[in-house]
What we know:
By secondary structure, the protein is α/β, with parallel strands linked by helices. About 40% of the residues lie in helices and about 25% in strands.
Amino acid sequence: MTQLNIQLLLTGDELMSGDIIDTNSPMIASQLKELGVEITRKVTVADNLTFLIDEIRHMSIQSDFLIINGGLGPTSDDLTAEALANVCELPLAEHPEAIEHLEHWCEKRKMELTQQNLKQALLPKDCNIIPNKIGSAVGFSIEVNDCIVMCTPGVPVELEVMMEHIRTIISAKLPDNIQTKTTRFQVFGIGESKIQKLVDESFPDWPQEVALGYRAASPTIEVKLTTRSADDEKLKQHWQNKLEDLLGHHIYHHIESKPVTVSEKLVQLLDAENLKLTLAESCTGGLIASNITSVSGASNIFEAGYVTYSNEIKIQTLGVSAETLESDGAVSRRCVIEMANGALNKAKADVVVAVSGIAGPNGGTPDKPVGTVWIAWGSMNNISSVCLAIPGGRKYFQHMVSTIGQDLLRRFIKKIDEIPLYIKEREVK
Length: 429
């Protein structure tokens, strides 16, 4: 790791009281690690002007970079700008770029720009703006005590977008011979410990020059390959190819700008293939439909789904036969295939996912314990099905069933014959 002294100051009463959990500092640390640098010290303080001034002064004297997270909002307890101006011995002044950002932000939402909002444009004189593409509060940076101080909002999704700009600022100070580059791709169906085991067994000669890292974002994993020089980058392509061959179609997305969910990937694929999707859900209670419709553009590929929780509604809505339910039960191959065909007929769709299972904690039997699920997927006259055992809590079960169903349909549309690891490990014969 490159020896830059980068410190992190978190501010907020809610952090000190435990009302919210800090997820920002791990994300900051993870992104900086990809540059080959690390956080050397982290401090959390309450929304107290004196404490903030003292910490900013102390940490800026020690650091090459100081990232301050939080305290940029419109309320009286948002004190970061005032504290930093005090340390810099500069007045607070309305920043033209910050005002322009606020005006655009309010106009887009048909909101009035209030005096309270304008507080977010009152920044240390002559500071540089760090753009915020999502929220109302811009970030800003300024140099004090030979330290570059960068201030960011506490809202995680806003911070994550702004980290690209922060990484650029830090990268400019790295030695010329350090050329950190990271290739990232997303995996579903193999956990990080399993991936590492496969790598250790298959590639005992994996080179140190190509750092292999992981970022869990349940139920998916982000795999990262990082190099520190141009020569290492040339070496990386060879090992990336070997790793991609090893993981196969469990890799569902190569990240060029930002990660995507399995649902986003499926919606993109359906749209590209001009296919309409329908869903027949029982044990997931509409979660698959919720995941699909959370994606922008879902209306192009999704018109109707059916949550048929009771046997009676399965019969009335999807045409599942009473005989099937009597002889095989709702959690059965025959039932999910009839659910799938019923949904396809009713919605006049091209492809389908149907699920029926026992989410628990009650309802299991010796033959069909809690965690048993039947999944059907495909198109009219081409329906596949599988029975899986997914033990765990109710929410975990529903989350996994939803994602597996979508991944199986992705594989079907792309004509992938490879059997995913989650079927090899979880299938109930």
